[in-house]
Specification:
single chain; SNAPC1; two-stranded parallel sheet; mainly alpha; about 350 residues; 2 domains
Length: about 350
């Protein structure tokens, strides 16, 4: 949608593109203005209950400068009046509050009946108001609905307006609204998007400067653990173990799992050919041991621990892993991979 003035002869006044009047820039602002008119009229109607309702409405209409809107259109290329009447008809549907329906009916009548006809230069004017037939039926029920409501004084102006519109053949009756006979079929037809806001919304979040805080490390660790658990749930075990027999103890049921782990580990070490401290397999195992030890130290810094005596002992925790890595470096065993065989114990 182009918002620039249409091409025009030299020294002529620029003309707004017709698509502006069906775009969200115009229609959404017009909806808000109509809502403001309804709210202001309701306030004045309550404060001046003894005065004629239509006189109060006309004063509110002129106070909000609605009568100047008709002077904005000088040719049929920008018929914003059709859009104005379409929005008024939107507010007269049965889904709207009764006072809103009555107010927009008065606005529709006032806007149509006060069109300037004999002007120089001539101003484009609206001859007929297109309306779907089901909306017309809703419109004709407003006066009867007001008769049994708290706004009974609005019934006579509403009945007069409906009779004026009917006898003057003002409405151009269209098929049912579910067939979308209006042109455009819905408003707004064009939606304006602020490209600056879109660019800022799509921009990646800026990374915080400095070292990560302890809370950031904790969140990162929890996210990694969650991803690891999800991966383990999706991964099938290498060795299918039979289910434990009924009545067996926990240690007895865990024994087959330990044996299965030892079997898998033996196959892995055979494939890596770890004989000799200078082999590629030995270097890979050493790198894996150092990586595990480093990650355990990072976790220890992030996660608070209450009892340091267990962690500092040589038989459990990071202390034993450190001793196991030292054993690997001296060629005594395979470090962390031999924890079950007593690696790291002193």
């Amino acid at each position: 949608m182009s918002l620039y003035p249409a091409p025009s002869p030299r020294h002529a006044e620029p003309t707004i593109q017709p698509s502006y009047f069906t775009s969200s820039l115009y229609t959404e602002a017009l909806r808000e203005d109509i809502s403001d008119l309804v709210a202001e009229f309701q306030e004045q109607y309550t404060a001046n209950a003894s005065e004629a309702p239509f006189s109060v409405f006309k004063r509110t209409w002129r106070a909000q400068k609605w009568h100047l809107l008709q002077l904005r259109v000088f040719d049929d290329r920008t018929p914003s009046w059709d859009i104005k009447t379409s929005h008024d008809l939107e507010k007269t549907k049965t889904c709207e509050p009764l006072f809103t329906r009555a107010t927009t009916l008065l606005a529709l009548y006032t806007f149509y009946s006060t069109q300037p006809l004999e002007t120089i230069p001539a101003i484009w004017h609206l001859k007929h108001i297109p309306i779907p037939i089901d909306h017309l039926r809703d419109l004709q029920t407003i006066a009867d609905s007001l008769d049994t409501s708290d706004f009974a004084s609005l019934r006579r102006p509403a009945a007069y307006v409906l009779r004026f519109l009917r006898e003057g053949n003002v409405f151009l009756i269209l098929p049912n609204s579910n067939l979308h006979p209006e042109n455009p079929r819905s408003l707004p037809r064009e939606t304006y998007l602020d490209h600056g806001r879109i660019a800022s919304a799509d921009a990646p979040a800026t990374k915080k400067k400095g070292r990560p805080t302890k809370n950031d490390k904790t969140r990162k660790m929890k996210s990694a653990m969650h991803n690891l658990e999800g991966w383990l749930d999706k991964t099938r075990p290498f060795v299918e173990l039979p289910p434990p027999a009924v009545g067996t103890s926990a240690s007895a049921s865990a024994a087959p799992k330990v044996e299965g782990y030892k079997l898998i580990k033996a196959e892995l070490l055979d494939l890596m050919a770890t004989e000799g401290p200078g082999s590629e397999g030995h270097a890979a195992i050493l790198k894996a041991n150092e990586f595990i030890l480093q990650r355990l130290k990072e976790v220890r810094e992030v996660v608070p621990h209450d009892d340091d005596s267990v962690e500092d002992s040589s038989s459990a925790g990071i202390g034993r892993v450190e001793l196991a890595v030292e054993d690997l470096e001296r060629g005594l065993n395979r470090g962390v991979l031999d924890l079950l065989e007593g690696s790291g114990k002193r």
